[in-house]
Amino acid sequence: MTSRPERWASDRGSAAVELVLVTPLLIMVLLTVVALGRLSDARLVVADAAHQAARAASLARTETRARSDARRAARETLQAARSACVRPQVTVDTGSLTPGASTSATVTCTADLRDLTIIPMPGSVKVADTAHSPVDRFRSAP
Question: Buried-most residue among 26, 30, 41, 127 (CB within 10 A)?
Answer without folding.
Answer: 127
